[in-house]
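Risk mitigation, structural track. In case the binding assays with adenosine-5'-diphosphate fail to produce interpretable data, a predicted complex structure has been prepared as a fallback.
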Amino acid sequence: MRIGVLAYKGSEAALSDWTPVIEHLNKSLPAYHFTLSDYDADGLREAVQHHRVDFVITNGGQYIALEAEFGLSRIATLESPHAASPAQSIGSAVIVRADRKDIAGLSDLRGRRVAAVAPEAFGGYLAAVRELRQLGIDPESDFGRLDFLGLPMQRIVEAVAQGSADAGIVRSCLLEEMAREGRLRLADFRVLSPRSVQGFRCGLSSRLYPDWPIATARHTDLKLAKAVAKELLSMPPTAQGFAWTVPADYQAVHELYRELRIGPYAYLRETGLEGLARRYWPFLLIGFIALAGWVVHAVRVEHQVYVRTGELRRALAARDEAEARMRENQEQVEHLSRLSILGELSGTLAHELNQPLATIGNYAQSLLRRQASGRLTPEAVDEAGTSITVQAERAGGILRRIRDFARKRAVVRERQPLEDLAREAVALFCGMQAHAPSVTVDSGLTPGAIVEVDALQIQQVMLNLLKNVDDAAKGLPEERCRIDLTLSREGDWYRVSVRDRGHGLPEALRARLFEAFFTTKPDGMGLGLSICKTIVETHGGRLWAKPNADGPGMTFTFALPADEPVS
Ligand code: ADP
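Fallback model:
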């Protein structure tokens, strides 16, 4: 059975320290043969890793590291004569030469040359580092120089004594042991920031930690482990006063390692980006791929949105342009249509104007004749003057309405009394014809019935409907030429109906009444009703036609949304 020990003072010292233990075991367990193998820290770790040792004796720090890494399990803890308890047995002494008055305590170590055993040495480095860190000193960056001189530990004492190091970190009690062996004088050295712990008899700069344990490797037979434990616990103290007791609690060592983030707690140190990356690279890789995918997706979507927005904007601009062109065309067509209505009606316009002009001429001649014959009385002048004025006004009115109607202008919607619009349209219709048919306006509306419309457009509709009757009743007796224009209200709608007594239209053709270019007249354009329908619909209304049920002819009706009078 191989027992591996950490030879912190060198092979020789290890041999002399631990031989009594080996001898005791060999004596009390003769069925086994125990041998001692000494290692430095790395060597011992490797021996455990490759199952070259069955038991391990090492310091508390290496023990917890090997416990975490390879499943070592302690079976007893050393009891040293210098310590009152095995749980408080090991610490660091930070030493300087007694004549170094310039270094009073641990906090004076900044910028100094410090020697220590090794980065992973427990008493020879780490226990002191914990205290230095708590003073805000980081040995790795705040010391002027940090030399790891390795084992045996006496080298550090020598370096301090020779002055090649200003201070040295050693396991507590090393100085005292060396003094006992006559290798130095205690008075030549000083321990920095000394602590006193009751029952602890060595110079000390740090907290105390449990003494060394003996541990079994994972592969070690349990029965053997139990037997060894039993024999160690019953082993009498050696000549130097060492003995074994029940395993101590190594929690304090865990705390030190956790605080320094080393050994089993080294992962805590890796909070930097690099550490995180090293620990979580598979997640980071997945995250990165996901992020990259998302970025590619976002860029693509953005690009598509950009392209589509451009297309949409161009389409909207094209639509606006087309709408503007259509509106312009519509206005143009409406204007032409108005001129065409006038054209059709004005066939008789000359005759119509002729009548007032002839009357005016007659009165003027009669005045001249009376003047020549000396029969010009003031009454006759009065009568002629009045009649001339009336006839001139009549002719002027006709011309004004025609001019207004024929004007080219943009669409304007205004609140208008519907009845006034209708009467004006009828006046224009009748005023332009010598033998205008009789038009009866029957208003069932309250006087304030208002529509919000373009007056000229609505009058154009009315005029078109009235004008169509002329053709529909052509050649019929005067009685059948009469037109009824009726205004009524139906819920939220105002209705305007134009009823004639004409020839009507066969049912097959009625379906096509509102089609553009549908006409039955040799000189017709077939645009009037289709324009009327468009006008009414752009006002939110409807236009339709029905044959009269109770007589000849047809009735054209359009409905407009009623606009409530402003109170
Ligand atoms: P146009 O008067 O140039 O023919 P319209 O669109 O005004 O164009 O009329 C289309 C057709 O509808 C007319 O040709 C006619 O056949 C018919 N129509 C219109 N009004 C009447 C009506 N009151 N009675 C019978 N037919 C009509």
